[in-house]
Amino acid sequence: MPSLVEARSSNASFRPDYIPVAVFIGGTGGIAAEVAVLLARYTNGGIHVIIAGRNRLDGVKVLESLAKPLAYRDEEANNTLGSDSQQLLREFVFCDASSLRSVRTASENIHKLLRTQGQRINFLVFSAGYGNYFKSFDTMDGLDLQLMMRYYHRFKMAFELMPLLRNARDNEQDAKFLSILGSGIKWPVNPSDFGFKNLGVLGRMFKAFQTGLASAVYMDIMIEEFASRERGISFSHNWPGVVRTAQLDFAFRSYWLFTPFRPLFDLFVQATTVSAEESAEWTLFALLDASAEGKGFYRRWNHGQELNAGDASSPERKSLREKLFMHSVLEMHAEELSITSD
Ligand SMILES: NC(=O)c1ccc[n+]([C@@H]2O[C@H](COP(=O)([O-])OP(=O)(O)OC[C@H]3O[C@@H](n4cnc5c(N)ncnc54)[C@H](OP(=O)(O)O)[C@@H]3O)[C@@H](O)[C@H]2O)c1
């Protein structure tokens, strides 16, 4: 398990011999935004970045805060940007992760933007935050909101954008997927109702709690299946620990029952949690450290430490993986974007 200093120094040693393309879904704030900032810093600004989310203002703020190459800054100051510099991509793409249509449009727009960058993605990071273990909601597409936010849209976009990751791999560059959520959770999965659509009375009462846990388990299963299908690409699923972001506020602090205890809660939080920047350092370590060799998938905890791969290769697990994969393709109307199409 790397200390923060070790993670930082490992990240700082990242020296790609090409200009990477990084895409952050839910990168308008929280942990992913900090990972984008760090990755730009450690590559001295030599990186193409797309931030996707539903809040353009915040997305543009993140993009503007990213390090830029020295030459680019000089040219910008002198208002003499040459054609080479202008090719550095820093773009916001609208994506409401709770909507099937918006997710598809975002995949298409990312795909279009990357036509000028060799139609490749080196780092694809998912982090749009949502968690409510008390009350469940449906999306306008009739899907459970928590499953959509924490699992389905990540599957759909990964599936649709996979040709761009493959292209990076085929050019002998990094090709890495990372989902920031909750790895290593043990919770039973019901293969005949992955979408939690046929629950009894008791099941409906605790639906939010169940989908909160099941979405994390699905993500563990998803990376195993993708890794077995897409050799040469690494798939990581991280639990970031308890991190001071909007997610933490939403989950606990803003709940009205906690109002009288807020000062105490804030003291406790400060003592027991980490900042988004610290968490991002370990998250980036996990992303860069993942190798496409061997099993190709990684479950990690808050300090980048790897968890046991468990029973990933047993016949029962293999069958479960395939069933969830097929269910997700159908439920998400997932269709790969071709790297040669318009
Ligand atoms: N923070 C923690 O303690 C913690 C603990 C365990 C797991 N996690 C998981 O780690 C991941 C990152 O957490 P975080 O704390 O960085 O999350 P966060 O700050 O709550 O959210 C990250 C970003 O997601 C965006 N987002 C929310 N809803 C969206 C939607 N429908 N479409 C597109 N973007 C949306 C948010 O922007 P807007 O709301 O402005 O759109 C925000 O910028 C999440 O998956 C979370 O569940 C976090």
From TrEMBL:
One MF term in the entry's GO annotations: oxidoreductase activity
Organism: Gymnopus androsaceus JB14
Alphabetical list of InterPro entries matching this protein: NAD(P)-bd_dom_sf, Sec_Metab_Biosynth_Oxidored
PANTHER family for this protein: ALCOHOL DEHYDROGENASE-LIKE C-TERMINAL DOMAIN-CONTAINING PROTEIN, YALI0E05731P
Keyword annotations of the record: Oxidoreductase
Domain of life from the UniProt record: Eukaryota
Residues spanning the membrane: none
Protein name, UniProt field: NAD(P)-binding protein
